[in-house]
């Protein structure tokens, strides 16, 4: 499973973004956010609101 997919699954499971960032190997939450936006085309907040 790719990094973006794992991050997406953890965020959907309700894991806080800061914990997701370190769990999947990002330096910090902002690094995760930039990668998430680039890979999925939406912010984490908008993604979470779509559930």
Q: What can you see in these coordinates?
A:
The chain is built from four helices and no strands. The N and C termini lie far apart (21 Å). It is mainly alpha-helical. The model has no long low-confidence stretch (mean pLDDT 81).
Indicate the topology:
Blueprint: H1 3-12, H2 17-24, H3 29-40, H4 44-49
Helix pairs in contact: 1-2, 2-3
In helices, the fraction of residues equals over 70%
User: Strand percentage, roughly?
Assistant: under 5%
> How many runs of DSSP E, i.e. beta strands?
0
Instruction: Give the SSE order as H and E letters.
Output: HHHH
SS summary, helix count:
4
Name a few traits of the molecule:
mainly alpha, 71% helix, single chain
């Amino acid at each position: 499973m790719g990094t973006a997919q794992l991050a997406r699954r953890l965020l959907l499971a309700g894991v806080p973004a800061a914990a997701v960032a370190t769990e999947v190997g990002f330096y910090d939450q902002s690094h995760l956010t930039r990668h998430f936006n680039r890979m999925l085309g939406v912010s984490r907040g908008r993604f979470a609101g779509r559930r």
